[in-house]
Design a protein that fits this description.
Elements (H helix, E strand, L loop, with lengths): L2 H4 L11 H24 L5 H13 L13 H24 L4 H7 L3 H13 L5 H24 L2 H24 L4 H10 L2 H12 L1 H9 L3 H28 L2 H4 L6 H13 L5 H19 L35
Length: about 325
C-alpha cells in the first residue's frame, strides 16, 4: 500500500484543527461577552476614564515583555489614536449614553463596510459586486436597527457606536498599511498610545471630581472589569487571534468573528435582561449576512491588480497581516 494512504487524515489546507476551532470560538465568546462587561464597568467609571484604564492595564506590564515595536512608530501612534482614542472613546461614550450592550456588539460589525470603503479610497482595493451587495445588505441592517433603537432608546448613543465603527474601519486600513508581523506585539504597543490622551479628555470633559470619585470607589467588581477588558479581551484575545492568523489564511479565521454579535446579544439578554425584539433579530440577520458577504468574498486590488491581499475586516483582529514591503519596514 502506498505510504501516503497510511498517513492519518488531518485538516486540509486552510482548515482549522479542532483545538483551533475551539480557540477561535472562545475568542469570539470573550469578545462578545466583553460588551456586557463594558456595560457593568460603565456603572463604576466615566466612559473616557474607563477606556484610559483599559489601555493602561493592557499595556502594563505587557509592553516590557513583547519586545520593541516591529513596525514604524507612525503606525503605532496612528492606530493608537484612531483605534484607542476615537473608536473606544466613542464606543464607551455611546454605551454610556444608553446604547444597549447587545445592540452595540451587533452594530459595531458594520466596521467591515467602512473598512472596505476606506480600503478602496486609500489603497485602491476595489470591491467585487458581491461585496457591494454585502455592504448594501449590512447598511439595510443598520437602518432596521436604527428604527428599533429610535423607538425604544436614545438615538445619540446608537449614532456614536456607528461613528466608532467608522473609526475602526480607518484603523483597519492603517493596520493594513503597517502590516505588523506580530499582532500581539503591535496591539500592546498601540495600547500605550491612548492612555494620556484619554486621561486628558476625561479630565476636560468628565471632570476631575468625577474621575477621583470613581477611583476612590474602586471595588473588586470594578477591578475585575478592568482586568477582563484589558487582559482577557486585549492581551489574550488579540494574542490568540494573531496566533490563528499566523497559522491559517485570514479567510479561514475571519468567519469566527461573526459569532461575536451572537455571543454579545445572547449574553446581554442573559445577564442584563436586554430584550431582543423581532426588529433586532431582523437587523442581526441583515448585518451578519451583509458583513459575511463584504468580508469573506475574495477582494480585488487596484489598477495593478497584484501584490496585495485584500483586507479581511470581519472581526476585531481579522486583518490580514502580510510581511511589510521595503517601503513599509520600520526605520
Amino acid at each position: 500500500m502506498h505510504p501516503a494512504r497510511l498517513a492519518p487524515a488531518g485538516p486540509g489546507p486552510g482548515r482549522l484543527a479542532p483545538a483551533h476551532v475551539a480557540l477561535a470560538a472562545l475568542v469570539a465568546a470573550v469578545w462578545g461577552v466583553n460588551f456586557v462587561v463594558i456595560e457593568i464597568g460603565l456603572g463604576h467609571f466615566p466612559p473616557l476614564l474607563f477606556s484610559a484604564l483599559r489601555f493602561l492595564v493592557a499595556a502594563l506590564p505587557a509592553v516590557f515583555l513583547v519586545g520593541r515595536p516591529k513596525v514604524a512608530w507612525k503606525w503605532v501612534v496612528g492606530v493608537g489614536l484612531v483605534l484607542g482614542v476615537a473608536k473606544f472613546g466613542l464606543l464607551f461614550t455611546g454605551m454610556d449614553l444608553g446604547a444597549p450592550a447587545g445592540l452595540s456588539s451587533l452594530v459595531l460589525q458594520v466596521q467591515a463596510v467602512f473598512t472596505a470603503l476606506f480600503a478602496f479610497a486609500a489603497l485602491g482595493e476595489r470591491p467585487r459586486r458581491i461585496q457591494m451587495l454585502g455592504m448594501a445588505v449590512a447598511l439595510a441592517g443598520i437602518g432596521v436597527a436604527a428604527v428599533d433603537e429610535g423607538g425604544s432608546g436614545p438615538l445619540a448613543g446608537f449614532l456614536l457606536v456607528i461613528a466608532a465603527a467608522a473609526c475602526w474601519g480607518v484603523s483597519n486600513v492603517l493596520t493594513r498599511k503597517a502590516a505588523p508581523p506580530d499582532a500581539l506585539n503591535f496591539m500592546v504597543w498601540v495600547s500605550t498610545v491612548p492612555v494620556l490622551p484619554l486621561l486628558a479628555l476625561s479630565l476636560l470633559l468628565e471632570g476631575p471630581e468625577r474621575d477621583l470619585a470613581a477611583l476612590r470607589g474602586l471595588d473588586w467588581t470594578g477591578a475585575g472589569v478592568i482586568v477582563y477588558v484589558a487582559w482577557i479581551t486585549t492581551v489574550f484575545g488579540f494574542g490568540a487571534w494573531g496566533l490563528l492568523l499566523r497559522r491559517y489564511p485570514a479567510s479561514s479565521v475571519a468567519p469566527f468573528s461573526l459569532l461575536v454579535p451572537a455571543f454579545g446579544m445572547s449574553s446581554a439578554a442573559l445577564f442584563l435582561g436586554e430584550p431582543v425584539t423581532p426588529l433586532r433579530w431582523c437587523a442581526a440577520a441583515l448585518l451578519v449576512g451583509g458583513v459575511a458577504l463584504t468580508s469573506l468574498a475574495p477582494g480585488r486590488t487596484g489598477a495593478g491588480g497584484r501584490g496585495r491581499n485584500p483586507v479581511a475586516p470581519a472581526g476585531p483582529a481579522a486583518v490580514s497581516f502580510p510581511r511589510p514591503t521595503g517601503e513599509e519596514r520600520p526605520a
